């Protein structure tokens, strides 16, 4: 059973999510929070598996709340829900430890898929939206110099896969591109994550763009 905490300052949105999600056999809405401050308190008390986190809220926004939640020893997975695909706060939330993001107007099927993917320990990446989001951020921020020490530890294949992940390719797509098995791709990705101290694919994308491995607009 996936234990869910819904965080949004709009009551009607919380009610809508709850009414739909509680119809799922593998999901349980254990609580609701009206802002980031409330979310941190509720998460500590209820210990949800996945937090559906709004971004723009009073008192404490979703970025700060996400950072506090993911810093905990047994942190829940955080799925950001946003109205705009280029919300300026979303990138900050990803850097704070969120496992992905989804537009609020996404289909019900897409929402369920996102929750299950995030709960399984994967990251939710929409290649087109993620790329536009990070490229928008990168155009407003001076790129960081590559972390030579960490990058030097990657094998040529791991570095190649990092670039493909950053371009939004899935494991099956990477496997087909490199003419290897999906199991091989997963093995390389796991090793690459460990060497770069990354949580998941979202943060691999962020790392690649931040460190200049992928140049915005050049894919």
Automatic annotation (TrEMBL):
InterPro entries hit by this protein: CheY-like_superfamily, NreC/VraR/RcsB-like_REC, Sig_transdc_resp-reg_C-effctor, Sig_transdc_resp-reg_receiver, Tscrpt_reg_LuxR_C, WalR-like
Presence of keyword Phosphoprotein: yes
UniProt KW Transcription keyword: yes
Keywords: DNA-binding, Phosphoprotein, Transcription, Transcription regulation
Biological process according to GO: phosphorelay signal transduction system; regulation of DNA-templated transcription
A Gene Ontology molecular function term of the record: DNA binding
SUPFAM superfamilies assigned: C-terminal effector domain of the bipartite response regulators, CheY-like
Domain called HTH luxR-type: residue spans: 147-212
A Pfam family the protein falls into: GerE
Protein name as annotated: DNA-binding response regulator
Lineage of origin: Bacteria, Bacillati, Actinomycetota, Actinomycetes, Micromonosporales
């Amino acid at each position: 059973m996936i234990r869910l905490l819904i965080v949004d300052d709009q009551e009607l949105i919380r009610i809508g999510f709850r009414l739909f999600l509680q119809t799922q056999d593998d999901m349980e809405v254990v609580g609701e929070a009206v802002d980031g401050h409330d979310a941190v308190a509720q998460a500590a008390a209820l210990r949800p598996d996945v937090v559906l986190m709004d971004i723009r809220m009073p008192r404490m926004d979703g970025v700060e709340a996400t950072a506090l939640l993911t810093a905990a020893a047994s942190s829940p997975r955080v799925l950001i829900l946003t109205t705009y695909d280029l919300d300026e706060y979303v990138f900050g939330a990803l850097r704070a430890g969120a496992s992905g993001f989804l537009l609020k107007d996404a289909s019900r099927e897409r929402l369920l898929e996102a929750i299950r993917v995030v709960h399984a320990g994967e990251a939710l990446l929409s290649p087109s939206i993620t790329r536009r989001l990070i490229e928008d951020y990168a155009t407003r921020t001076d790129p960081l110099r590559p972390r030579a020490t960490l990058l030097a530890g990657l094998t040529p294949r791991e570095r190649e896969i990092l670039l493909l992940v950053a371009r939004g390719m899935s494991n099956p797509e990477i496997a087909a591109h490199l003419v290897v098995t999906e199991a091989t791709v997963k093995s390389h990705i796991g090793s690459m994550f460990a060497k770069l101290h990354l949580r998941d694919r979202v943060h691999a994308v962020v790392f690649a763009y931040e460190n200049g491995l992928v140049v915005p607009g050049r894919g």
